[in-house]
Design a protein that fits this description.
single chain, 294 residues, alpha/beta, 7-stranded mixed β-sheet, 4-stranded mixed β-sheet, 19% strand, Lipid A biosynthesis acyltransferase, transferase
Length: 294
């Protein structure tokens, strides 16, 4: 394992312009020969954008393969990327919302989707006024990869938390505006935990709702992270405060609002999402759809 770590670190030290050569090779193999999860990607796109022609679907799929290949090499680059380079390549827009939350004495819940490249937000901890920045990750089967990705996410002052422990951590921590927690909130819940679903991209979609418990029980600041790929190797993330319709969030309100914001993002840039995941495989297990029992 130590040898593998050394190899990965050595590769990550290569300039991105070199790593993008590997990305181009992966793109060629996927788009023209191997077709990694081609059927899953194509079906997800067809179901999500029924108004688009087959030619448009193929064009989105082609761009997805390029963005996905870039994401893979950029994730490897994360092992050794400097804080300076990270800040240059990831522009953070509308940071005022974090200062507002701190002034209000409210901890922050950041909600992001699987939009490329969410892994490059690590230097964010140095920018926001909150003292503690907690990326939330889901435990993987490989101890090796979990340890490596945890190291990557803990760079630049982050304090990564595993998904099963984060909710309790938030409830036990002081709500004083000094902590932020980043959820990749469009995760597909395990089949045993599929309870709530909503309409997302023209489909009944099982939704992860762990952060909804926080919205209805605590006075927190919820912020949507809108990712955008500006050009190869450069991204923007625009932060939007999510407010309740009334004095506080009702049940599942923040879940619906997050998915609507994410849907708007994907309509603008449909090729920049992780379409290879089987996000809709547990549709039949939804027990409550948008507030009504099935």
């Amino acid at each position: 394992m130590n040898f593998l770590i050394k190899i990965l670190y050595f590769i990550s030290k290569l300039p991105l312009k070199v790593l993008y050569i590997f990305s181009d090779v992966m793109f060629f193999l996927n788009n023209y020969l191997v077709g990694y999860r081609r059927k899953v990607i194509t079906q997800n796109l067809r179901n999500s954008f029924p108004e688009k022609s087959e030619e448009e679907i193929r064009a989105i799929r082609k761009k997805f393969y390029l963005n996905f290949s870039d994401y893979l090499v950029e994730t490897i680059k994360s092992f050794s990327i400097s804080e300076t380079e990270s800040r240059v390549r990831m522009q953070h827009i509308n940071q005022e919302v974090f200062h507002e939350a701190k002034a209000e004495g409210k901890n922050v819940i950041m909600l992001a989707g699987h939009v490329f490249n969410w892994e490059w937000m690590n230097a964010f901890a140095r920018i926001i006024p909150q003292k503690h920045c907690h990326p939330v990750y889901r435990k993987v089967n490989s101890d090796f990869w979990e340890n490596q990705m945890k190291k990557v996410r803990n760079k630049f002052g982050n304090e990564a938390l595993e998904a099963n422990e984060v909710i309790m951590n938030i409830f036990r921590s002081k709500n004083d505006g000094e902590s932020s927690y980043m959820f990749v909130a469009d995760q597909t819940p395990h089949v045993a935990h599929v309870n709530y679903g909503l309409e997302f991209l023209n489909q009944k979609t099982p939704a992860f709702i762990g952060y909804d418990k926080l919205a209805t029980r605590m006075d927190l600041a919820f912020i949507y992270c809108e990712m955008k790929k500006v050009k190869r190797g450069y991204y923007q993330v625009n932060y939007h405060r999510i407010y309740p319709d009334g004095e506080k969030f009702t049940e599942h309100e923040v879940v619906r609002k997050f998915h609507k914001l994410l849907e708007n993002t994907l309509h603008k840039h449909p090729d920049n999402y992780l379409w290879s995941h089987r996000k809709w495989k547990y549709q039949g297990s939804i027990k409550t759809f948008d507030g009504e029992k099935i």
